[in-house]
Amino acid sequence: MWDQVEKQGQRFLEVKRLIEDPASPGNPSYPAWLKEYGRLNKIGTLYEEYLKAAKETSDADALLKDPASDAELKELAKEEAALAKAKRDETRTALMEMAQSEDEDSARNVIVEIHAGVGGDESALWVGDLFDMYKRHADRKGWKLVVQDFSHGNAGGMSDVSFRVEGQGAFEDFRFEAGGHRVQRVPKTETQGRIHTSMARVAVLPEVEDIEVQVDPKEVRETFCAAGGPGGQNVNKVASQCQLLHEPTGILVRCMETRSAAQNKVRAWQILRSKLYALRKAEADKNRSDQRLGQIGSGERSERVRTYNFPQGRCTDHRLEGEDKNWPVAKIVEGYLDEMLTKLKDARKRGMMGVAQED
User: Fold this and answer.
1) Lowest-confidence range among 99-113, 264-278, 293-307?
2) Of 68, 101, 134, the domain-final residue
3) Residues 147 and 234 in one domain
């Protein structure tokens, strides 16, 4: 854990030196450095305090060991050493706690994908409802939500949708949405009043900068095509949708965020880098106990993090326990997620986070 702290702390110092260089504002990477500086600022500032206290401790200890130092000076150094050691240990403990409760991705923007699972047309309707829920949550937080790609369902809703949310701490909120979301209700498509059970899968990715993940362009197949859906003749006739296939991993990315093929290409590459970042991080951290939280599974009913039971008016988050696990479903689907997310964040900090339920 301390290795992780030092890695982030040293990176903060490196980025700080870069942005303080008078020549840096003309560098194409300057905006990315500013974003990274802001993301690392909290842990980086505390890390600077730790380094200062550690140096003061070392200097005072050296003075105490110096045979040339007189008794009065050594007495003063002894007091300074005690204060410096206390500050050093205090900041080290705070850094460790911060590393356990947060990670380098917490303050990032986020890319979210929702895919229909089992349940036919109702599953596509549920994807649309989940998207509306997340949009309301983002709106209340003052975050910007932009749709990057989507496909219509046969009876309404969406069979899948991907979007990015831009705002401080967006990933920290949305990270808890990764997994299977089960809904139990009478669908709009049901004529006999029967309750159906359907699933949607949610994938959550931290958005990364170009300089953080290098991708060999030779390994990516890039194509453009006309985007489907609403938007007039331009959307349907102009080849503005960008599609990227990363051949070594098979990762496929599509983006039709804007009418500009060039802008969609930039966004598509950003999504690809984010997916590769998440893949590499998952491989590096695969032995960590909290990694199962991020698994979205295959969309089967047994793989779920949350159940939305409309007949009973209850939303159950299966990673929480006791009174904390059940919430009014009407309130949750309206995007009032803050209270539930606070409980999930607290559980994660305590290391008490559960995993997807199995029937």
Assistant:
1) 293-307
2) 101
3) no
